[in-house]
Amino acid sequence: MKFTLRGASSAALLVGLAGFMPAWAQDTVATTDQPAEAAQPDSTSRVVITGSLIAGTPEDAALPVEVFTNEDLEEQGAPTALEFAKNLTISGFTQGEANFQGGSAPGAVSFNLRGIGAEKSLTLLNGRRVSTNVSFIPGAALARTELLKDGAAVTYGADAVGGVINFITRDEFVGLEANASYKYVDGSDGDYTASLLGGIGEGDINFLWSMEYEHRSPLTPDQRDWAITPYSTNLSPWSALSNIGVYTPRGALPGVITPTGPGGQFTTADEYGAALGAGIYDNALSVGSRLANCESIGGAWSNPAAPNAGFCRFGYFPFYNLVEEQDVYRAYGQVNATINDDMEFHMDAAYGQVRSATHVSPSLPTSRGPGMAQTGTELFIPRTNPFVGQFLADTGATLAPTASGFTIGGAASSLYRTFAFQGTTAFGDDTALNEYDYQGFRVSGGLKGRLGDWAGMASNINYDAGLTYNQTITRLTGPDMLGHRIQQALNGFGGPNCNAVDTDPNRLGTQNPAAAGQNGCQWFNPFLTSFQSNPALNLINPQSGSNRNLALPTGVSSWENSNELQRWLYDDRESETVATSLTLDLIFSGESGIDLPGGALAWAVGMQGRQLENRETIPSPFYNGSVPCQWPGQDPIPAGQLGFTGCENAGPFVFFDPEIPERVDQQQAALFGELQIPVLDNLNLSAAVRREEFSGGIGDTVYKVSGKWDVWGPLSLRGSYGTNYLAPPIGLQAGEVTNGVTNYALAGSQWLPSVTVTDDEIGPATATAWNAGVIWQSEGFAADHDLSIIIDYFNIETENEFRALATTNQILNAVYSTTDAFNACNHPLA
Which residues contact 19 (CB under 8 A, 6 or more apart)? Predict the structure, then answer.
């Protein structure tokens, strides 16, 4: 047995992976229009069909396939996976770099061909399906990548509306190859990678394996000037919702809480007392100080010309990293074996893991308060809170002796963020953290060849049978604050070790003023005195109690809220989703025996069956629906009854709704066929049709025709026309009724029950696609040069996308003409 040790390479090359790909062996690719069985069995001439069931698809064929070899990418500077995905001329928005607003999974690169969504781009490994997330594609083992830039649902089934990416591994690698790379990035610790590739067997059996590790270092916004520019020149998002609040004084607490609002609803006054005068701006003795306080910590006043009516805008983009820290691990193994002259066996297994802890906004707005008022988003600060005294001194305000305290938030002033400019140290840093842990596993095996002499007249018919299993496990956390815990901390009963007896069961939360701030219970400071700086912008807060060396109020040890208290306010909102798919493919192909002027008519027929399942696990009772209201133990009152609080299934978070764990499955079965029609030596046509059925009685038939005409010498024309479809989301059933909660703008932004009904006649989303291309291939400007120019035009029109026909607020706007917060639609009996 021959064994060679190949030298390590310092070059890094990546195609379609999240991060790094070691340098490929110096393979060359010869694509051909010959049948697959005519190709030599080594990796330099292997034809893996992309876009056709019959023959190879070179770049100048009827189907627009682009091939990327290692040499091609080295000439482009060995792009990273994300760079490769983003720089494709047909690529739209591509996730994988950062986690702005929790919208993506850093390190988990997916392809968004045509910009119509990653769910409409199909990814293959050696011609078999993989998950949308390509994190476990074995970069070290790849030979080339083929990109089909045309819709291909007729060939591959659902998900191929925008195109197909087919990663192809080496066939007969023998030896050991080690690679490592380091990329210097100004402002971060850089990115580094390492991989090992091994292979044995030069006869009928070859075994190949690879292992890879990849690390990306975080890049914070303060390392790039454009990320932290002022509001006037910064296009990044800003919010009117911050913790420079407007506090409303409240009268005496009612002795008995009785709902007095329309339809028997509670109002804020019913629970916290009547409003006493106008709101008080935090630490704002004058208009000038409001502006100065806002700007000193990185805010922007919304209306400098009339600041009395304004608010301090909060720029949350600096709290998000430009690049998140990522660790990626991969392992891969495959076996190629020649069983006999008519049968080849292939089996591969791939595993990948991506781990990342991502920075997000310190806290979300309090869009759902813990009070009993159905329309309320307020939090209540009792006058006994030890930080109130300094707040009154800073604002020059007085509080009537009978006043109970303040409310903050709600429609009367501005919504409130518990943490904003100061970030939060709850997670050991200056912002909240989302954790992302993705694991992907795939195993695929198959036989291919020709039927052989035993089949008689059918001996030359080719077959390709395969079975592929994919599994992904995605664990996510996205912390949100629990409204009842914020309220408890404002009342002096915060923290995980608080031990106090509730003396008034008629009110929500712990009622025992004598025990507040004692026996492990902590007070929460909601005012500007509570933080020393804006850590994202490195700005000092001049109103900080510590920065001003103010004497501490009685009963507290710090102006700043402790890490322990901050962390207690959050629930991780952890979820784990396991998605599995099992796919069976069986294809027969051959020549018909009918000769046309351009050659023999070729055909292919096949079938595909798929079983998909998604299973979700949510351990937290606050997130999985076990706690339906803001307060644990609070009983939801049905809409329309006296005292309805609107908490019905709204859950305890200040922003997010509960997520009820689901387990859903879907079955798919398809029959398809294809013809290659060589009409003339210079005119080749193809036609294909596919019928696919989905569980729930849903089905569709799609077709495609394409052709290429060699017009003259180096000039050729090609084009295609066809229909595509996208499978209904797993678990979506015709006529299904879903109960939930929705924020109704016309009803005072209340969270009320909602019902969604799935259309009885729902079907697959469809798309019509066509393309036209011009190909020029000739000698180049020198004797040893080649010139190739390919221009393709694509048009894809999607219809019947899966979405709500109208939102609840659109329906309300069409029915009611008034914007009165207490109009008929606000009434629970309406």
Answer: 80, 81, 82, 107, 191, 193, 214, 216, 326, 328
Residues 6 or more apart whose Cβ sits within 8 Å of residue 811: none
pLDDT of 45 over the 50 cut = no
> Which residue in 649, 643, 639, 636 sits closest to 267, CA to CA?
643
pLDDT digits (tens, 9 = 90+) for 501-560: 998 887 788 999 999 999 999 999 999 999 999 998 889 999 999 999 999 999 899 999
Write the pLDDT tens digit of every residue in 202-238.
Answer: 889 999 999 999 898 988 888 888 877 777 676 667 7
Which residues lie below 8 Å from residue 158, measured CB to CB, with a gap of 6+?
668, 692, 725, 726, 727, 764
In 3-state terms, what secondary structure has residue 616? strand
Look at the alpha carbons of 444, 206, 34, 143 in this order and tell me if their dihedral is positive or negative. positive
Residue, of 787 and 374, whose pLDDT is higher: 787
The SS3 of residue 363 is coil
Residue 419 has a pLDDT of 93
Structure tokens at 446: 């198959």
Indicate the pLDDT class of residue 640, thresholds 50, 70 and 90.
Answer: low
The predicted structure's pLDDT at residue 565 = 97
Query: pLDDT category, 434, cuts 50, 70, 90?
Result: confident
- In this structure, the number of other CB atoms found within 10 A of the CB of residue 816 comes to 16
Does residue 668 contact residue 129 with C-beta atoms inside 8 Å? no
DSSP per-residue codes, 5-36: BPPPB--B--SSSSS--BPPP-------SSBG
Identity of the amino acid at 579: A
Q: Calculate the CA 812 to chain-centre distance.
A: 30
- Dist CA 36 CA 224 (whole Å): 52
The per-type count for the chain, helices as H runs and strands as E runs, is 9, 33
Residue 79 CA neighbour count, 13 Å, CB half = 17
825 phi, psi to nearest 5 deg: -70, -15
The band of 8, judged by pLDDT with boundaries at 50, 70 and 90, is very low
| Separation of alpha carbons 217 and 220, rounded Å | 10
Q: Among 539, 578, 732, 570, which Cα is nearest to 656's?
A: 570
Confidence of residue 741 (pLDDT cuts 50, 70, 90): low
Comparing CA positions, the residue from 246, 163, 214 lying closest to residue 13 is 214
Taking the complete model, does pTM exceed 0.85, yes or no? no
CB atoms closer than 10 angstroms to residue 335 = 16
Q: Do residues 791 and 717 touch, judged by C-beta distance below 8 A? A: no
| Residue 665: its H or E element | strand 663-680
d(CA 361, CA 424): 9
734 with 696: CB under 8 angstroms?
yes
Instruction: For residue 292, report the phi and psi dihedrals to the nearest 5 degrees.
Output: -65, -45
Q: Are 257 and 371 in contact (CB under 8 A)?
A: no
SS3 percent helix, strand, coil of the chain, rounded to 5, is 15, 40, 50
pLDDT at position 453: 87
Residues 6+ apart with CB under 8 A from 414: 240, 241, 245, 246, 311
